[in-house]
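To whoever is on call:

I kicked off a structure prediction for a single chain this morning and the downstream step that reads the tokens threw a length-mismatch warning. I double-checked the sequence; it's 407 residues and nothing unusual in it as far as I can see. Pasting both halves so you can look.
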Amino acid sequence: MFDLDKWAEIFESINRHKLRTALTAFGVFWGIFMLVLLMGAGNGLFNSIKHEFSDVATNSIWLSPGRTSLPHNGLNKGRRIRFDNSDYDFLKDHFEGVDEITGRFFISGDRKVKYKDKSLAYSINSIHPAFKTMENITVTQGRFITDKDLHTYNKVCIIGDIVKKNLFEDEDAIGKQIIVDDIAYTVVGTFYDIDDWVMKNIYIPITTAQRVYSGNQRLNRIMFTTKGMSVSEVTQIEDQVYAAFAARKNFSVKDRRAIWSENNAKDYEEFAGLMLAIQGIIWMVGIFSMIAGVIGVSNIMLIIVKDRTREIGIRKSLGATPWSIIMMILQESIFITALAGFVGVAFGILIIGSLSGIKSDFFRTPHVDLSVVLIATLVLVLSGALAGLIPAIKAARINPVIAMKSD
């Protein structure tokens, strides 16, 4: 039941100790405010990492040829290792753990792309069909590169949505021809990717690119995914593939510069572990900040009890029960804690909300989980009640006769 007199007493007590109450409330406010702010910042960091991996299969391994750094079987170091289509076939046919696989043949620099009276420069990339899965590409219209395109050296392409918009505007691009370096390619599909720069790419069959731009079967990179394996199993496959290529290319298996291997599963696990540690630190800092605020509430309530000792003695002599004295102190403690806590939450959410539009490589769309914040606030209020419990019990045990004699 709402007791107006009790609330009037609470506000009178707060009014008598404005500065002390304000400083105590600020401690509580700052604790929950920092927790919300740090949680939002932590989520911003985690989102940036997830974004970096979102357009890459996290169970994938990338292999790029390098130079040997160790002598092996009478051969000097410094030999250049090269990949070709036979290495792609070897990896595809001899390892059961390999799921999707694609090669890459790099076409250097941006190329002039023409359509009707428009001429723009874009990056041309050559791929296998599995590249769609490897890079989490979404086909928005038409189709992707197929095995048939590879076998027949089709001059077809799939273009990013930005390329489509710039070249074709509202016109349907499917079936139309674009000119790339005086060679005509038929557009068979368009695609979307979360990164705008990727949608400025044009993909063509890798066999077509090899025939047109190099006249050989050279590959600059081989990428493959694994079938539902743990990180340790993916690493084991990586070691097995590396050993097989060491024997195939005649270099030492200990030479890690002969082939550069990038294990995305391992990298993602390391980043996830780092973020878990950062989130743990965030919670630790936030919790200790809130504890400091709650301790401040407990201290001010002890001071208030001391200041009101004579008043409490008079109340008890007039028949006030110990429970009513306890509730009087607890109510004030909970009120200060809850008010400061909710204001801290509101300010924290307001600031995180103002930063939610940030999208950079290291910090992206920060946000807070409202349910977690509300639970933290509830715990804070309960802590405020516990903080006021010791002073309240002390007040309830005051001897009326001794209390009324106090100054």
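Update from on-call: the warning came from a stale cache, not from the record. Cleared it. Sanity check on the structure: The chain has a mean pLDDT of 82.
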